[in-house]
Amino acid sequence: MQTDIKPAKILRSPFFIAMWLTLFLVEIIKGALLVAVLPVYMDNILGLSAGVIGVAFALQYLGDNLFRAPSGWAAERIGFRVTMVTALICTLIAVIMILFLKSAVGLSMACLILGIGTSPLWPCAMTGVTAMSGPQNKNGTAMGALEMAALGGTGLGPVGMNWLLERTDHDYRTIFLVLMGCAILVILVAIILPGRVVAQGGQAGDAGEHRMPTNQKYPAKPNLLTPFIRLQQSVKRTLHRVRSTLNVNPLVYPALFMQSFVIGLLSPVITLYTRTDLNISPNLYSLLLIAGGGITVIALLPVGKMVDKFGTKPFLNIGFLMAAASLFVFSIVTAIPVVFGIVMLVGVSYAMILPAWNAFVATLIPEGERGAIWGFFLTLQGSGMVFGPIVSGLLWDHISHPAPFIASALVMAGLFVVHFVLARKPYRTAPAG
Predict the structure, then answer these.
(1) Looking at the whole model, is its pTM more than 0.70?
(2) Contact 84/124 with Cβ under 8 angstroms?
(3) Residue 97, number of CB atoms within 10 A of its CB
(4) For 212-267, how does the pLDDT look when each residue is reduced to its tens digit (9 = 90+)?
């Protein structure tokens, strides 16, 4: 008989600890490269154009999103350890390429490989946590802890690299060597991940131990094509099971996209807006980020525990409405104390949204093909980060500087409406066939 693992036990499990550390360290590397190091290095040191930098970053997002579903599928068949270690070796290779290659093509390929290397992170984390939480999906606490690791790493990476750049007189070779060390460390951490897929109730079955139907026909004698034939048939079975078991309201798909589209709208213009329109100094801007991001990180774990106790619905409804109102007000106020207050409200709203949203999506994942479906959902959700910056730039250039913030507020309000419908009717009327 399958039983639930209590949320506190999930946090203490070897899988969760190893996955948390892996997520935290990888986000340090990504945050350092994408926020603090590569934009300045490619522009000031290598003299590459903004267009080249944009293409390189787009390739990173593309690699991350395209390979999420395949990596989730692989994790269920060959295990978390092999999937993560193989991918993280790609991350190390990407950092080495960035250190030695100076051309636009070389750095763009390095960014693509970096995206591929980080793609299994969230599918593996979500698949493992969802499996351990059991049929009642009491995983809000674990989701909050995972978001803490991600946000903490994303913030610590740029801060740490900026501090190191100042101490080394902008010696980028030293920076890349430090990041190579971090990549090696995270590979060593990933080695302690379980080689078996975590099942409900904390039991584990052999990775890849998916029994073949007795009527499945393979060549009687193995030959060079046998592995490819098995792979092709396994993929076909997976796609069939996904279609037959995934029975969600179609509104889930735009909701997944919208959730990250908001972040994509904000990420390229938030720094420009605060410095050009609000005249906030770099030091004050750092305090602003600490105020907003810090309150989010601090609130994630307690909110996750409350999600497990009270459910996802109230937190998502309040979070979406609070974020929509805060982002709209942010676009029209200029008084610095008010700006700080609004940013803190946005931080609180995201602390409510992130663990509750992941826990809500987890309730929609059927037991079969968890890894593949989580990968598919996360790919769709991540695609918003690809299109959001493009739309944001067009709004900024052709309408007004506050326009991206107003657009993000409208998307958040739309998410409130979509979630209100989904909370009442999360599944399709007729099952998938």
Answers:
(1) no
(2) yes
(3) 17
(4) 344 444 444 444 444 445 545 555 555 555 555 567 788 888 898 998 888 878 87
